[in-house]
Amino acid sequence: MLRLKQRPVLTLVVVAITVVTSAIVVASPTALAHLERTPAGSNGEWWRTLTSLFTQDSAGGAASNLLFMLALGVVAEQVTTRWRWLAAYLVAGIVGELVGYAWQPTGAGNSVAVCGLAAVVTVACWRRDERLPIYGPMALVLWDAVLLSTWSWPAAIVGGVAAMAVIRLQRWRHVGTFTVAVTIATGVFLACVQNIHGAALLAGLALAALVTYVWREPLTATEPDPRLPRPAGSPR
């Protein structure tokens, strides 16, 4: 049992929308030509920056992206609010698409948006958030391996080894820190080789850190907001 504290309503809704739009595109290749990211997106056809996040350019890519969107989305929805979930998903996705016009002008898929959810889970691992499901770090490092495979299979093997280490050491005290290090390294490496997932992941990490440490997102649902006055007689 996953023992979820929050029903993943938003995750299921966004997954359902993406399944429908992706199925339409896979069934009708002509639809993809009107919705995917192309150089036309930076020359007047602005909607492509958004529609490309809800379409997939292959059935295999759709299956992988949706699987990890479900896994990471459910985890992210346990450790943050739904508005922040949506912000992380869209901001990382849009950054990835905008960078894509320079690095990879043609393409489609929500993998860059899933990087925003991965970023939320990364920050939760760093904080050792008690709401984090036990499979969270494992799903995150497996996603890192998938991202590395978009650059080269040798890099994906390295990510796969890291994922196996996390699976074997789930109860290790520092597994969260190790997972965070792997994810940050993945983002930096992919950005350096001009892979759009690197830019999306780093943008997501920046937003998740901002939300957590500037706007002070609590570690638990019952933790009081430090900005609010304490009741009389409460311990300081």
Structure, described:
The protein is mainly alpha-helical. The protein has a single domain, classed as Rhomboid-like (Rhomboid-like fold), CATH 1.20.1540.10. 66% of the residues lie in helices and 0% in strands. The chain contains 10 helices and no strands. The protein has helices at 9-27, 29-35, 48-51, 59-79, 82-103, 111-127, 136-149, 153-168, 175-192, 196-213. Helix 1 (9-27) crosses helix 2 (29-35), helix 5 (82-103) crosses helix 6 and helix 6 packs antiparallel against helix 7. The longest helix is centred in the middle third of the chain and has 22 residues, at 82-103. It is globular and about 50 Å long. The chain starts with 8 loop residues before the first helix and ends in a 23-residue tail after the last helix. The model is unreliable at 221-236 (pLDDT under 50).
What is the fold's blueprint, element by element?
Elements: H1 9-27, H2 29-35, H3 48-51, H4 59-79, H5 82-103, H6 111-127, H7 136-149, H8 153-168, H9 175-192, H10 196-213
Helix pairs in contact: 1-2, 1-4, 4-6, 4-7, 5-6, 5-10, 6-7, 6-9, 6-10, 7-8, 7-9, 9-10
